[in-house]
Write a structure and sequence with these properties.
This protein is α+β, with helices and mostly antiparallel strands and about 475 residues long. It has 15 helices and 21 strands. It binds flavin-adenine dinucleotide. Flavin-adenine dinucleotide binds next to β5, α5 and β12.
Length: about 475
Amino acid sequence: MNTRRTFLKKSMHGATATLGIPLLTKDTFASVEPTGVNGRYWRNWFGNERCIPNKIVRPSDLTELCQTIRRSEKIRAVGSSHSFSPLVPTPDTLLYTGRMNRVLDLNLNHRFVQVEGGMKLAELNSYLDEFGVTLPTFGGIDQQTMAGLTCTATHGVGVQWGSFSDGRGLSAIELVLANGELLKLRDTDRSHDKYLHAARVSLGALGVIHSLTFKVFEAHNLEEITRPASLEEALRPEQYLSSDHYKFYYFPFTNSTYMMFQNRTQLARSINPAKKWFENTFLAKVLIEGVFKAFSHAPFMIPDAMRLLTRFLPETRSVDRSYKIMIQAMPPKSPVMEFAFPAEKAARAIEVYREVVSELSSRTENPYYANFPIVVRFASGDVGNYLSHAQGTNPHCFIDFTAHPAIHGWEEFFAILEKRMIELGGRPHWGKIFRESPKKLYPQFDLYNQVRLELDPSEKFANRFIDSLVTSS
Ligand SMILES: Cc1cc2nc3c(=O)[nH]c(=O)nc-3n(C[C@H](O)[C@H](O)[C@H](O)COP(=O)(O)OP(=O)(O)OC[C@H]3O[C@@H](n4cnc5c(N)ncnc54)[C@H](O)[C@@H]3O)c2cc1C
């Protein structure tokens, strides 16, 4: 039987990787090393996961991919390296997928697109727009690869659709297996069901994804309206039920939120500069780089600063292409944790968050002041996969917790929040920060693992994270 301690110990990889909360050193943030594969070295976007693999391979087509996999003993694929969790690190072969980034087929009659796994979402979005079509969901940024997105059930906003791994949108997957053979999985073949259920959120452990096929829909503009509101107003179900896309920011130590609605429109493109200012300047520069950096030595001033800042939230109205308006600029490097709940639990989850914020800020020794708004997004859960953190077609809320990395104490804050969110029934995002094994939260984990062992009996595609996950209790 594995205790939590042995689980965490087993997940340690090299000097820096843990299952969840990263071992941070000062140089993590000072680092200027580029994200991803860099010579013989790899690190993730946030800088908390690194490895020096034995070998780095960069196949550029299916033949090379199959040969490479056949010849490797242990191999792990990497996309854009945007996951915070230790999904990627390996001491063995690391397979960079960025050269396999083509559209293989776009069928406008049957409304699907087949792409290679290493294609970035940004590239695919612009490509599809040229042909007047779009994916049903967008995500919050667009630098991830299509395979990387599905491996962790990355999601966007909007209760009509689930994540990129939702079986209603992801209809086929081609995987290169350990023996170098290509396995073609299609949702039109019922005998493929269990394999597709495992492969739609594969954690990179079934094989290397060569291609993915997504449904596409008519391209459109979205009108975005943003405005400040009380927490009670932001939490009303009609907000997410009556909008195509809805999310809000909640500011700790206040009762204030900033609501964002996006709805389909025939109106022409027009961008309110205050919109870009909020996400690209206010959140990134004012909060992270400015105010809270200044307060890292006087964090007790954060609650007042937060109250003051909420007075400057602008009301805006903008219209743009759907995939453009939904994508925000890359945020500054900060740790992020995320939990998914059925939407009706959003109010209780935020209440618990406020209790934790209040407990930590009011203690006499080592008080911690939450220093970043939380983001509450509403989207559908997924169908047709075993490991999505939001299951089923009902609306779910996804709550992102971010912290300023320079303000001491965020690791403890995250650890306490994680425990409380799991007690409430929340499931962590596979690609963000967590420290406890999420396995027990997935009733279908064993089904996933059976498929994994059937497709990869020698566990060629496992790494320490996968080993620890599978053996955890
Ligand atoms: C700034 C930022 C913003 C984010 N915003 C969102 C958001 O809005 N919504 C959300 O849900 N998540 C979000 N995330 C999380 C992110 O989308 C996921 O972690 C995603 O998996 C990263 O994709 P990637 O291409 O970087 O994959 P990587 O992090 O490189 O890899 C992730 C997993 O995919 C596997 N993999 C990659 N390619 C292949 C392949 N071809 N075959 C098999 N396995 C493969 C890897 O082995 C690994 O297990 C965000 C992360 C960051 C850093």
